[in-house]
Amino acid sequence: MKTIREQKWATTAKRGCDACRCGSTAGDHLEFATLQADWGPSSQHDGEKYEVRLCESCFFGTLGYVKQLRRSHVMFEDDYDPSADARLGLIVENGNHDEDKT
Ligand SMILES: [Zn+2]
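Above: query sequence and zinc ion SMILES. Below: predicted holo structure tokens.
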């Protein structure tokens, strides 16, 4: 009997990446990122939930877009630090968690 998590992973493996539809497995492990949203009452999309699975390539393409979007919003601020954009979202590197890397 498969656990709910195993069933979810099997479904994900069959579905692949939601952007390019490639399988994103490495051995027995799935390698994918999840983009999620659960919009509340004060949003325009109240009651909608999203879950998009991305392979490594599509994840970093999406992250690159987010970095560009961020840069367009903050690049003219006095305290803008472009070096911070390079590590946007990175919270663990080489197995080491660092709060300052967010
Ligand atoms: Zn993909």
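The longest helix spans residues 56-74.
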